[in-house]
């Protein structure tokens, strides 16, 4: 063939992430992890502020633990996928402070989806209790390890306000992109 040939566009998979889009794996994991994480966080806040007797709170604690273990599983998958795929580029050029804020919030949320369940698990097993959910022992007690239990409690009990702030910034940023900037940032995580 003679003449100038146009290069073929690079085909991307709808499953994996590209430099400008999130694939279906990222989208599904994002929304499942978000729902389970919010459930665990909401139950944790309820349990912490409840004036119900301990035995009345127990079923909520079982759900909190189940959600927490699920968050850890999906979180490990999410972080692994993100490390393997990187982050797609922003859809538009943002001021440097917005770009830095978005990166800090994303890394903070990814850290939280690992740190919260790990610290919760450590509170159980380093606090001298098995990690059990509905009578099924997932991890045996390590015995009472005071320093580890103290650190785990400090993380688990002080992080929620910071996480709520990061979630608010994440949601606000997505809505700002959608309604004010009118770009495709939000649609990249929601549309097919």
From TrEMBL:
The chain crosses the membrane at residues 28-47, 104-126, 158-179. Its cofactor is heme b. It is found in: Cell membrane. Gene3D superfamilies: Transmembrane di-heme cytochromes, Chain C. It comes from the Bacteria. It comes from Aliiroseovarius sediminilitoris. Its main location: membrane. Residues 21-192 form the Cytochrome b561 bacterial/Ni-hydrogenase domain. Belongs to the cytochrome b561 family. GO terms for cellular component: plasma membrane. This is Cytochrome b561. It is a multi-pass membrane protein. The keyword Repeat does not apply. Keywords: Cell membrane, Electron transport, Heme, Iron, Membrane, Metal-binding, Transmembrane, Transmembrane helix, Transport. GO terms for molecular function: electron transfer activity; heme binding; metal ion binding. GO terms for biological process: respiratory electron transport chain. InterPro entries: Cyt_b561_bac/Ni-Hgenase (IPR011577), Cytochrome_b561_oxidase (IPR052168), Di-haem_cyt_TM (IPR016174).
């Amino acid at each position: 063939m003679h003449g100038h040939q146009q290069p073929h566009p690079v085909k991307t998979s709808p499953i994996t992430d590209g430099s400008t889009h999130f694939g279906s794996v990222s989208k599904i994991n994002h929304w499942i992890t978000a729902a389970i994480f919010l459930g665990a966080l909401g139950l944790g806040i309820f349990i912490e502020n409840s004036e119900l007797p301990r035995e009345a709170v127990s079923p909520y604690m079982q759900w909190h633990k189940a959600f927490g273990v699920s968050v850890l599983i999906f979180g490990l998958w999410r972080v692994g996928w993100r490390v393997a795929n990187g982050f797609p580029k922003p859809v538009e050029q943002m001021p440097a402070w917005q770009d830095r804020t978005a990166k800090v919030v994303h890394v903070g949320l990814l850290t939280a989806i690992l740190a919260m369940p790990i610290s919760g698990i450590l509170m159980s097993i380093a606090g001298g209790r098995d990690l059990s959910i509905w009578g099924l022992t997932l991890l045996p007690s390590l015995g009472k390890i005071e320093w580890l239990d103290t650190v785990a409690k400090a993380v688990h009990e002080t992080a929620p306000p910071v996480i709520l702030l990061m979630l608010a910034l994440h949601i606000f940023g997505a809505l700002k992109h959608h309604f004010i900037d009118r770009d495709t940032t939000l649609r990249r995580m929601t549309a097919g």
